Amino acid sequence: MTAKELGVLALLGFGVWLGGAVTFRFGGGLLFENGPLVLAASAVGIAVTVCILLRSIMTWRGSPDAEAVTVAVAMAIPGLFGDVAYTLAFAPITGLSPLTAGPYAAIILFGNACLLAYALWIQQRARA
Q: Is 42:110 a contact under the CB 8 Å cutoff?
């Protein structure tokens, strides 16, 4: 995979993260402060969404399944760096309780773990 393609994937990943950050800014109270069932549903919804986005972007960019982990990592890294700043300034950015930063971080970690596990599954299936 070329450096240019990695850059494109990183920009796409940043765009996905930015869309999520804006969504969390305006809908965070609904997602993170309405009890454990809504939180669990949000986590599953986010995990499914990022996996669908990975598959869609790989198809659109013509990335082979054997490079799924590389694609997922290239897309996830910008958002993970962004989440560091977002989490450190969670209350001022979102207007939510600082205690909500924990559930936010848990959902982000869960979504990224599912994304990487799905990419690994795609890649292993392609190599089999």
A: no
